[in-house]
Design brief:
The protein contains four helices and two strands. It is mainly alpha-helical and 114 residues long.
């Protein structure tokens, strides 16, 4: 019901932005995506900012996470489901994958070089 009230206010009053109280309500009631993995510090900051308790499974941190059907490469946005593990690079922090070629391209740019 509350989302309908927010939507109708935006549609009928020609508002250009949400009120702070509406944004707070949206984020307070938002669910965490089930496939989202984040660093523990990010989860702690989120929990502190929203007053929610978000638990990260400790066994998933630092492990390779093979892409599921809805996972896309964060660089080229192509699907990665079913790609051989040898064609992927995995983040050491969260275990998310990206294509070897995409990683190499990013690392060749001076702004991404270590």
């Amino acid at each position: 019901m509350s989302s309908f009230l927010i939507s109708s206010r935006l549609l009928f009053n020609d508002s250009r932005a949400l009120l702070t109280s509406e944004l707070e309500q949206i984020f307070r009631e938002a669910r965490v995506a089930p496939t989202t993995l984040a660093h523990a510090r990010v989860l702690e900051a989120y929990a502190h900012a929203t007053g929610k308790v978000v638990e990260q499974p400790t066994d998933s941190i630092g492990k390779k996470r093979m892409p599921s059907e809805e996972d896309d490469c964060p660089v080229c946005y192509d699907g990665m489901h079913g790609a051989p593990e040898s064609s992927l690079v995995f983040c050491e922090e969260c275990g998310n994958a990206l294509h070897n070629e995409c990683f190499a391209e990013c690392m060749s740019l001076s702004t991404f070089a270590l």
